[in-house]
Each structure stands twice: as structure tokens, then as C-alpha cells.
Amino acid sequence: MTSRFSSERRDFLRQSLTGLSGLSLAAFPDLGRPESRKFKYGVVGTGFRSRLAHLPILRDHFPQIEVVAMADVTPANLAQGLKIYGNQNTRGYTDYRELLAKHPDLDAVLVVVPNYLHAEVGIAALESGKNVLTEKPIATSVADGQRMIATAAEHGRALQVGFQSRYATLYHKAAELIQQGAIGKLEMVFGCLFRGDWNPRSWQYTDPATGKSTNWRFLTRTEGSALLEDGIHELDVINWLVGVAPRRIQAQGGNSVWLDRETIDNAGVLVEYANGVRLNFGFSIFTPGTDDHSLLRFYGCEGELSFAEDGGKQYVVTQRFRSKAERIEVPHLLPEEEPVWKAATSERLASESGASTYRLHQAFLNSVSTNSPVFADGHVGLEAARLSLAAEHSLRTGNPVSWEEPL
Ligand SMILES: NC(=O)c1ccc[n+]([C@@H]2O[C@H](COP(=O)([O-])OP(=O)(O)OC[C@H]3O[C@@H](n4cnc5c(N)ncnc54)[C@H](O)[C@@H]3O)[C@@H](O)[C@H]2O)c1
Asked: Which among 117, 162, 307, 326 could bridge 135 via Cys, Cβ 3.0 to 4.6 Å?
């Protein structure tokens, strides 16, 4: 019998292999030709993520893009977004549906609202013919993620999920080294995200049933799951580098410190992948979030691969058994991106996260302008979301979850 997950799994494998072989470190062509037309973007949600990353990066580094419209239900956030982008012609709306209706010629819409709205806003934008770059997670349920993918396919539009780590030069180098056999056959992965708590100034969701306002990251309805909100970046990189779908997921977790919220504050997740690779992943949001709060280590039958930072430089570190460790420096941006890097007025690019968000936008614009495949597409987004939701399901029920199991 063909399950409804079989085609997803094929897509998962295809995407993963594409990730390892098809998107090399030099995958992004020059998009900055002055004679080319401007691409018109709309931004829905002008909270912290938009204001700290997307809007300054688009403003400072993408002269070929014009953000012509923004929407946010919170007028103060909308005003701040408009001010940061600083283009007098950019129109503001408090209802994203009005933005979509009044700007039929947008090339793309960025979806940067709380997680439970990604599918609603993303599908509305796709149905009105826009390409969509949605923040992670793709959606708060597998069914909604599948609807996003189906709508993008039906309307022939690009759907990219905001996994900036997929565009980080560091992880592309790691993927290349693992594929070349630098550590032998991959057998185990250790990872963790021991970050601090969520931003206390995040948007407050008012529950229509009780009239009570709560940080949207504290409620299952609005966040989906804590692992879906964060930890999903690391889980996605692991999915990509392991290269096949998970087979079985088992997790424990709950609330050890933040007892007054629905969403968990810690978890331990064990995953067995279809090729036998085993993952051990730790997650917490009550720890202080020290410099090394996010770790990834890959163990092969002949050695191990990890990452290091030193003096603003980043390295992939490989060590084969009974040999000395080898540090390979990986630039944040590629040599051909250097002119943009040097012209940068924003300090935001001087970090792995800033540089990879810049590259994420570069890749999205490339897909939109050349109609070429998206790397961190809906399928990539759905598989990472499914893994996070499966872990959440396991820790809530106390039972292991198989990959084929409906969630
Ligand atoms: N990729 C990353 O590293 C990263 C980092 C932070 C956040 N994010 C993601 O970005 C998204 C937003 O997070 P944030 O930190 O900016 O949250 P936030 O609470 O700061 O901002 C959310 C914004 O959405 C607005 N909003 C709420 N409902 C709306 C609606 N119906 N229409 C229009 N606007 C609406 C709110 O007014 C607020 O301004 C989340 O999905 C989050 O997971 C991604």
C-alpha cells in the first residue's frame, strides 16, 4: 500500500541529495545588475525578526528589491517597520488581506508573523499569485504544511522556508566534507540548543475564549511547539547532513522551570534515521544561553566533525582517529560576495546568522527571478516540522513515534 507519506519521503530524499550535491558553495549567481528591474516585496509582520534582520538586510544590501508594502496588526510595530526600512513610498496596512488586494503586482511576500499564522498568510499570498518566503516553521501542523506545499505547486509559485542555516557556508562545507568521507560513514550525531528564554517583548496573543493576553510563544495553539520554534534550525541541518528521513523518534521533556506556560522548557530527543544514523538532541530555554549554547557534532566510523569559532572566524574541525585535528576556516560569505560584504553598512552581516540570512535572501531572489528551484523549500520545511512535532508528540504521550505515523 502506498501511504500518503511515501511521496513526501521521496521528496525528502531528493531535496537532501540536492542539498549535498546540487547547491555548492558557489551556487548563487550575480543578481545585482543595475539594468534589471526592481523586485517588489511585501512584508507581513514587522515584529522583532523583521526589524532586526529582514528589513535592515533588504534595505542595506538589496538595491534590486523594493519593499513596497508592510502589514502588521500592531500599529506601533508597523510604524517601526516603516521607519527602519525608511522608504517614503512604502505603504502600511494593519490587515494583510488589504496589502494583498491593493498590491497585485508584488513579486514576493515575506511572512514574519507568529507561527500559527504562517499557513493562513502564506496560503493567501500564494493564492494571490505571490512567491512566498515564510519564516520557520512552515506551519504548526503537518496538514497545514502540506496545504502550503500544495498551494505553491498549484499556483506555480516559489515557497521558501526561513532556515538561514541552510545557506550558511559553514554547514555547506560540513556537508561537502561528510559526503567526501572525511569522517568515514556517518553513524551518530550529537546536538543541542541550550538557549535562554523567549523574548519577553514578543507579541501578545489574546485568547478569544478567555480574553487573556499571553506571549504567543507560551501557547501550543500559537507557537505549535517549543521545538518547532527553536531547535528546529539544528534539527533541519541534521536532517540535511544525514541525508535520509528519520525512522523513529522518542523524546522526554516538559516544564522544569517555566511552570505557568503550555509550551515546554526542556526536552531530550532520540532519533533513528532510515540509514541507521542515531541522533541525541538536547533542548532547553531556561539555561542562560552561553556562547556555546548551540552545538552540533557528527561522528563517523573513522572520525568526527565539529565546529569552532575564534576571533570572529569560523571553522569546521575534523579529526580522524589517532590523527591530529584539522581546522578548516570557512568565510561567512563567499569570495564573489565580498564586494557586497565590504560595502556593508550594517554590522548585522558580521555574524554567521546575519551572513546566512543575507544568503537566504539572495537565494530566494535568485529562485524568484530565474524561476529556479528553492533549496530550503516546503518539503524541507515540512520534514523539519514533522520531526519537531513527532518529538513533541512522543514527549507528551510517553510513546515512540514512527515516521509514517499520522500526527
Ligand atoms: N529564522 C530565525 O532565526 C528567527 C528568529 C526569530 C523569529 N523567527 C520567526 O519569525 C516569526 C516572528 O517572530 P518575532 O520574533 O518577530 O515575533 P514578534 O512577536 O516580535 O512579532 C510578531 C509580529 O506579528 C504581528 N502580527 C500578529 N498577528 C498578525 C496578523 N494577523 N497580521 C499581521 N501581523 C500580525 C505582531 O503585531 C508582531 O509585530 C516567528 O515565526 C518566528 O518563529 C525566526
From this structure: 162
- Beta carbons within 10 angstroms of residue 237's beta carbon: 23
**Probe target for ligand 1 pocket from 80, 203, 221, 294, with the most ligand atoms within 8 Å of CB:** 203
* H/E segment holding residue 318: strand 313-320
Residue 122 has pLDDT above 90, yes or no: yes
202 Cα: distance to centroid of ligand 1 (angstroms) = 8
| CATH 3.40.50.2030 at 168-337+379-402, yes or no | no
Ligand 1 centroid – CA 117 distance (Å): 9
**In angstroms, what is the span from residue 366 Cα to ligand 1's centroid?**
24
What does the domain layout of the chain look like in residue ranges? 6-165, 168-337+379-402
Output b/e per residue, 272-293; b: 16+ Cβ within 10 A: bbbeebebebbbbbebeeeeee
How far away, in angstroms, is 175 Cα from ligand 1 center? 30
- Separation of CA 219 and ligand 1 centre (Å): 14
d(CA 257, CA 277) in angstroms, rounded, equals 32
| Pocket-testing residue among 54, 55, 73, 207, ligand 1, by greatest number of atoms within 8 A of Cβ | 73
For 117, 225, 271, 386, the CA distances from 141, given in Å and listed in that order, are 11, 10, 20, 8
Bridge partners of 278, per DSSP, are 188, 272
Our answer on whether the CB atom of 294 is closer than 6 Å to any ligand 1 atom is no
- Considering the four listed CATH numbers 3.40.50.720, 3.40.350.10, 3.40.50.2300, 1.10.10.10, the one that applies to the domain covering 6-165 is 3.40.50.720
Q: Above 50 in pLDDT, residue 11?
A: no
Query: Closest Cα partner for 57 from 367, 370, 359?
Result: 359
Task: Read off the pLDDT of each residue in 379-402 and give the average, rounded to a whole number.
Answer: 98
Q: What radius of gyration do the chain's Cα atoms show?
A: 21
Contact by Cβ (8 Å): 285, 266: yes
The residue nearest atom 9 of ligand 1, judged by CA position, is: 135
Q: How confident is the model over 249-270, as a mean pLDDT? A: 97
pLDDT of residue 167 exceeding 60 = yes
- Asked whether 43 lines ligand 1 (CB < 6 A), one says no
Q: For residue 40, how many other CB atoms are within 10 A of its CB?
A: 16
- Nearest CA residue ID for atom 38, ligand 1: 47
